Amino acid sequence: MIDRVVTSGTFSLDGGTWDVDNNVWLVGDARSVIVIDAAHSAEKIAERVGGRTVTAIVCTHAHNDHINAASALSELTGAPILLHPADQVLWEMEYGDAVPYTPLEDGQRLAAGGVELQVIHTPGHAPGAVCLYAPELCAVFTGDTLFQGGPGATGRSFSSRETLVESIRTRLLPLPKETVVHTGHGDSTTIGAESSSF
Questions:
Q1: How far is Cα of residue 4 from the mean position of the Cα atoms in its chain?
Q2: Distance (Å) of CA 27 to CA 14, 55, 106
Q3: Measured in Å, how far apart are the chain's first and last C-alpha atoms?
């Protein structure tokens, strides 16, 4: 039901560039999947998808390292790209107005392979950051909102630590403590393990 591809590349913002490894999550079954955060290598992601249908490419936010393979993967698979429109300014830094996406909304429900993902808007790391909660799998995909060890970074443009902490406290910590947190970088954790940080 949940598969991970780790891709490597760079993250650039505010005049700096850093090497990063990204978690790309595939959620679904043997027939269809949703791809979460198409990072760095459309070919590597498509190889893991195999013969399955990609029903959507969902961006947890629009920092370039989470979206820079989305356009190419969309071309390879025919799948639409989904992003919260509050991240339009970040999206334009990577694609200008050349690549369209379908707007995501808080509370929206997405499905692939019998798995439902609930969209939770969690601004702070980026204005349009979202998490994707799969209650049947007891899992939440948090992008860069919540990591093992605490909240995501907020020291760059369009971010706010106060907003991020409020998002985590009000939108994520109420989830069941055993919920597994699958992050945009690094190892997974649980809601219960991270609740002590807040």
A1: 12
A2: 32, 10, 19
A3: 30
Q: What average pLDDT does range 147-165 have in this prediction? A: 96
φ, ψ at 22 (rounded to 5°): -115, 145
Mention every residue, 6+ apart, whose C-beta is less than 8 A from residue 195: 173, 177
CA distance 59 to 10: 17
Residue 197 in this model has a pLDDT that exceeds 90:
no
Name the 3-class secondary structure at 170: helix
**Residue 146: which residues within 8 A CB-CB, separation 6 or more?**
131, 152, 168, 172, 181, 183, 194
Instruction: Give one DSSP letter per residue of 39-88, joined into a string.
Output: -S-HHHHHHHHTTSEEEEEE-S---HHHHTTHHHHHHHH-PPEEE-GGGH
Q: Identify any residues that bridge with 53 across adjacent strands, giving them in sequence order.
A: 32
Read off the pTM: 0.98
Q: Over the stretch 60-85, which tens digit does the pLDDT of each residue have?
A: 999 999 999 999 999 999 999 999 99
